[in-house]
Design a protein that fits this description.
This protein is mainly β. Helices cover about 5% and strands about 30% of the residues. The protein contains one helix and six strands; from the N terminus they run βββαβββ. It has one helix at about 60-65; strands at about 15-20, 25, 50-55, 85-90, 90-100, 105-110. It has a four-stranded antiparallel sheet with strand order 3-4-5-6, with no helix packed on it. It is elongated and about 65 Å long. The two termini are about 30 Å apart.
């Protein structure tokens, strides 16, 4: 008995598979492969995401945390000039460097993190 989560997929014919130069399987297509552009994602352009740039972290006792005041310096686990981590919705997506642009802090992405998901 099928439930509502089952997908009704057509049977896969091994003759329909081709191998690209990297050796990965891909489904053979008839005709030219359409080029993907940013406009193809237009439906998700207005979806809000949370972007975080983590300069570093520090582990301190609760008692020390309660004594933190403006001007307190906390030692972080990163060195000056070391890449910072950039997260989108709490998922690591890139590394970068802190920059100053018109008296404001910003981040220049130096490495995009690829994931298998």
């Amino acid at each position: 008995m099928a439930n509502e989560n089952d997908l009704n997929l057509p049977p896969l014919n091994p003759a329909d598979l081709s191998f690209d130069n990297a050796g990965s399987d891909s489904v053979a297509r008839s005709g030219p492969v359409p080029v993907k552009t940013a406009e193809d994602l237009e439906q998700v352009f207005d979806v809000p995401v949370t972007v975080s740039a983590v300069l570093g972290s520090s582990r301190i006792a609760v008692g020390d945390l309660l004594r933190v005041t403006p001007g307190t310096v906390l030692e972080l686990d990163r060195r000056v000039g070391e890449a910072i981590d950039i997260f989108v919705n709490e998922r690591l997506v890139a590394r970068g460097e802190v920059v100053v642009v018109e008296e404001r802090l910003g981040v220049t992405m130096t490495e995009i993190i690829k994931t298998d998901r």
